[in-house]
Amino acid sequence: DTGVSQDPRHKITKRGQNVTFRCDPISEHNRLYWYRQTLGQGPEFLTYFQNEAQLEKSRLLSDRFSAERPKGSFSTLEIQRTEQGDSAMYLCASSSTQNTEAFFGQGTRLTVV
Amino acid sequence: AQTVTQSQPEMSVQEAETVTLSCTYDTSESDYYLFWYKQPPSRQMILVIRQEAYKQQNATENRFSVNFQKAAKSFSLKISDSQLGDAAMYFCAYRSAGDDKIIFGKGTRLHILP
Description:
heterodimer, A: mainly beta, four-stranded antiparallel sheet, B: mainly beta, six-stranded mixed sheet, 12 strands
């Protein structure tokens, strides 16, 4: 068990470009979460999957954001037409039915210039 | 909607001393879970301690313990014998038993003074 893995760790992009992040959860974890964390703040919930089904999306998640989890394994988070306000750490977490807590990856730090 | 409030943005404690981090939450649910997570600088978030709301006994994990006051909706974290490695952001978090989403507070940055 290698833990939750996120790729890339850092991404610098120009405003208006599209970016995609990947998350590989702990194997056999059926729940996968995406959070956004800005400097000095707590993680804000973005969206959540159970297996391949996206069960909940935060109202924070504008239509420029889309997440997928094909086949209920890894997940991708895409941000289209990035804005400077999208600069943040994007955290992925996973859990199983047996867990009450979530296990976090190291995050992808996005900087929009 | 459930909310989690951490009123101490930063705290400092002398090495080997004891420190208590505060957390309050708001919910209309009766069955839920509470967590304290630790996020060291530039490192991933890890679970420190967990409390089930139906348990009256306060959770303990080595030097870490909680004071869970369900009626007051209070969930504080006590760190005994503070060590330099305890320096981190600490987040209080809530999850309803009927929901899989975890809600976090804004965090408390803990400094350990040598």
